[in-house]
Amino acid sequence: MNAQVVLLALCTGLGFGCLLAAARALVTAAFLWARGRRVTGRVTARAATDGGRGGLVVFSDHLGRDFVLDPGPLGPLCGVPPVGGSVPVVHARRHPARARLWTTRHLLAPAFGWFLSAVVAFGTGIVTAR
Predict the structure, then answer these.
(1) How open is the CA angle 50-99-22, to the nearest 5 degrees?
(2) Neighbour-count burial for 64-94, b at 16+ CB within 10 Å, e otherwise
(3) Euclidean distance between the first and the last CA atom of the chain, given in angstroms as a whole number
(4) Tell me: the pLDDT tens digits for 4-22?
(5) Half-sphere exposure of 108 (CA within 13 A, CB side)
(6) What share of the chain is helix, strand, coil (3-state, %, to 5)?
């Protein structure tokens, strides 16, 4: 079998897989926007032994249980205020451990990343098919 055809098939499959992941991330963001429970979280400092950057967000669900959300190393870019500030958090009603920040950047960042990965995969397939 021709190597170009195999590479084109692999790139196309990867591209469609990334598009499916982007669609799933968009559906999750839309579900959280429509039916998610919005609470206010407080930004706290990380432990001294934790090597991560930025703060952690602590919030409580409707039963009073405390949860910790790690916005990741790019938290300040997604709208996380400095330590001591408050930030809106949204979570599914029965799954507060799957919380996200209630900012457009934090809700749509996974879908955007998957979409860019799909574009790169499809572009690689097109370039190699020539």
Answers:
(1) 105
(2) eeebebebeeebeebebeeeeeebebbbbee
(3) 16
(4) 888 899 999 999 999 999 9
(5) 7
(6) 50, 25, 30
